[in-house]
Structures are given as structure tokens and as C-alpha cells.
């Protein structure tokens, strides 16, 4: 089945599909959703619109037949970050002059010149899960203009190509940390303002991780840190123990003993995989949970205790350092931001 996409805005993208498939789409806050009927397969396609030119599309489905998405859009294309989690897909861009194939745990960064066509082929009769993170370069540059010079030249040149004059393709495996981020995105079961706010944070994290992955792949092989699979599995066990007990976390010594790895290797490996120390990761998890609880209208005192802080003032300082506002003002600031986005 051939389907034509005529707009990169994720809500219009999903509505394009719904009209051609004769299926109704629904809206939940900043999310547009198609639930596939049995005649087309099963699963859903979802499009999210976030701030600063960032949008996100998720295909989580098993189609009854192959789909070919044909992009026929006159406006400059966004920078596209594709992550394949399950199944496989094929992408052709620049009038088919560039073609590549993605398997699970592989991702790409691509850009298509203005007025050139691109196609994405999604196979039918098998489970497929992949995401598309789209960056409107002209809008996003207003936020990161001062940071572009810190990117590798190949990447900064394509971020600043706001008129879409050039094609670009990077393909490779994405990191364990990026895979963890995607897992949290695809398993999230909140709705409304809680879901939109949580997912925006994870999508921005995913974007930063893929940029870092690109930079890391430019390193000489001798400078890349290699970990054995057995070590990675043990570090993941330590991570899971940390998350399960983040309100009263075990010490590093206890984590190392329970996961079967020595403390030095645990600390170094954890930092390598997740790009954070164990304590930094713990704080991030606590702040993430705190933000969700605050969005559900829990009191600051309740939230601080729930995520493991007996000192409420200290919790407030940590939260403000992460989100830029005090916990008591967080829900109000998020609602104001959502209102602005809905008006755009």
C-alpha cells in the first residue's frame, strides 16, 4: 500500500494517514493517534508535537500488508533521527540516490534536499516498532545557536542547513543508554499533560544521546571504551536494583555485591553506558518521578518523601536545578507551556 505524506508536522502526518486509510484519528493533549483496525493489522501510529521545533512519530504495529510512505513535501525537510527497535525498514532519500536498511538496535540521522522525494518502506505481517525524531532546523537553531560550534563539523553543517540544500546520512548502532530511553518512551502509559511532558523530556534526552553517539563514532577505535556483554548485563542488574529502590538506594558496595561485579568496574562501566555516575543517575530518576507526581497534583511534601528526600528544602533545590522552577510552581509552568503550544 502506498501512502502519501504531504506535511512534516506530526499531527498532520498522522491525519494524512488516517484520511488515506479511512480511519479516524484522536487527539490527547499534544498527541495525535491512529488505532489500526483489524482490516489493516494491529497497533497504532502516534505523532507528538513538542517545543523548539522538535516532533516525534512512533510506529508500533503489525501491518496486514507492506506500507510505502511517499514524502511529497515542498517545504525544507527536517533533520530526521530514526531508531529501529523491532522489525526492519527501508529508507530511500534524495530521489532514491541514497538507500539504506535498518535492523533492530540500529538508527540513522538523515536530511533530504528541498523538493527531493523520500520513501520509507514498512514490511507487513511482522511486528514493527520504530520512531522518527524530527528537528525543524530553523526553529531549533534559535535555541541552540550558541552550541552548534561544539558539534562535529559534519553534524553542525547539516543542523545549520536550514534551507535544506544538502543530503546527509549517518547510520549505525545506537547506544545502550539511547535504547533505555526509547524503552521508557514506548512503555509509558500516562495520558494528557503528564504523558506529553514526560515524553518531551525523554525525546530531548534521546536527541542528545544520538548526537553524542555520532561524536563517539568519530573517535579512533583505540579511544572507544569496550565492555564485555557479561559486564554490561551485570551493570544493568545494578541499574535495575537502583531504580527499584531509589527512595532508599543501596550503597555502591551493596550494588556491586548484588550484581556480581567489583566496585571499580561498576562505577566506570555505569558512567560509560549511561553517561552519568551512579549518583547522578539516581538523582535523575528521582527528579523524573517527582515531576510526574507533581503533574498529578501531589503536594511538594508528599513528593519529596516519596522519592526519598527527608529534607524538603534540599529536594526543592535539586528539582529547580533540573527543571528551572521550584516544585510548587512546576504544574503551573507546564500548563502555561502546553497552552502556548496548543495555540501554535
Spatial strand order of the main sheet: 2-3-4-5-12-7-10-13
Taking the alpha carbons of the first and last residues, their distance comes to 33 Å
Mind telling me the CATH class of the largest domain? Mainly Beta
CATH superfamily of the largest domain: Jelly Rolls
What is the count of structural domains?
A: 2
CATH topology of the largest domain: the name is: Jelly Rolls
Number of strands: 13
Order of helices and strands: EHEEEEEEEEEEEHHEHHHHHHHHH
Flag low-confidence runs: none
Amount of helix:
40-55%
- The CATH architecture classification of the largest domain is Sandwich
Shape: globular
The overall pLDDT, averaged over residues, is 90
Helix-strand makeup class? alpha+beta
Keywords:
single chain; Jelly Rolls; Arc Repressor Mutant, subunit A; 8-stranded antiparallel β-sheet; 5-stranded mixed β-sheet
Can you characterise this structure?
The chain is 45% helix and 24% strand. The chain has twelve helices and 13 strands. Helix 6 packs across helix 8 (263-274). The model has no long low-confidence stretch (mean pLDDT 90). The chain has two domains: 2-174, Jelly Rolls; 221-343, Homeodomain-like (Arc Repressor Mutant, subunit A), CATH 1.10.10.60. It has helices at 10-21, 137-144, 153-159, 176-187, 192-217, 229-244, 252-259, 263-274, 278-295, 300-306, 312-323, 327-343; strands at 2-5, 25-28, 31-35, 41-49, 54-63, 67-71, 79-86, 89-93, 98-102, 106-111, 118-122, 127-135, 168-173.
Amino acid at each position: 500500500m502506498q501512502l502519501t505524506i504531504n506535511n512534516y508536522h506530526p499531527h498532520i502526518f498522522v491525519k494524512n494517514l488516517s484520511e488515506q486509510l479511512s480511519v479516524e484519528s484522536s487527539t490527547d493533549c499534544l498527541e495525535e493517534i491512529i488505532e489500526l483496525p483489524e482490516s489493516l493489522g494491529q497497533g497504532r501510529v502516534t505523532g507528538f508535537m513538542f517545543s523548539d521545533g522538535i516532533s516525534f512519530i512512533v510506529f508500533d504495529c503489525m501491518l496486514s500488508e507492506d506500507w510505502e510512505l511517499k514524502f511529497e513535501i515542498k517545504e525544507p525537510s527536517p533533520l530526521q533521527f530514526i531508531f529501529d527497535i523491532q522489525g526492519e525498514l527501508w529508507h530511500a532519500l534524495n530521489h532514491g540516490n541514497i538507500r539504506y536498511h535498518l535492523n533492530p538496535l540500529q538508527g540513522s540521522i538523515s536530511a533530504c534536499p528541498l523538493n527531493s522525494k523520500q520513501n520509507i518502506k514498512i514490511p507487513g505481517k511482522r511486528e514493527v516498532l520504530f520512531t522518527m525524531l524530527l528537528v525543524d532546523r530553523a526553529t531549533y537553531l534559535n535555541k541552540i545557536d550558541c552550541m552548534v560550534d561544539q558539534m562535529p563539523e559534519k553534524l553542525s553543517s547539516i543542523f545549520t542547513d536550514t534551507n535544506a540544500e544538502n543530503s546527509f546520512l549517518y547510520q549505525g548502532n545506537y547506544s545502550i543508554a539511547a535504547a533505555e530511553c526509547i524503552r521508557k518512551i514506548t512503555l509509558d502509559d500516562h495520558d494528557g499533560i503528564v504523558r506529553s511532558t514526560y515524553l518531551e523530556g525523554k525525546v530531548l534526552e534521546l536527541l542528545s544521546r544520538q548526537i553524542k553517539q555520532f561524536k563517539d563514532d568519530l573517535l579512533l577505535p583505540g579511544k572507544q571504551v569496550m565492555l564485555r556483554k557479561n559486564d554490561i548485563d551485570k551493570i544493568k542488574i545494578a541499574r535495575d536494583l537502583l531504580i527499584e529502590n531509589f527512595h532508599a538506594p543501596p550503597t555502591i558496595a551493596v550494588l556491586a555485591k548484588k550484581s556480581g561485579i567489583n566496585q571499580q568496574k561498576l562505577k566506570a562501566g555505569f558512567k560509560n553506558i549511561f553517561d552519568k555516575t551512579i549518583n547522578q543517575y539516581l538523582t535523575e530518576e528521582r527528579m523524573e518521578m517527582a515531576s510526574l507526581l507533581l503533574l498529578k497534583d501531589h503536594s511538594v511534601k508528599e513528593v519529596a518523601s516519596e522519592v526519598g528526600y527527608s529534607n524538603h528544602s534540599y529536594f526543592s533545590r535539586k528539582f529547580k536545578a533540573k527543571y528551572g522552577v521550584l516544585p510548587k510552581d512546576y504544574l503551573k509552568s507546564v500548563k502555561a507551556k502546553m497552552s502556548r503550544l496548543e495555540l501554535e
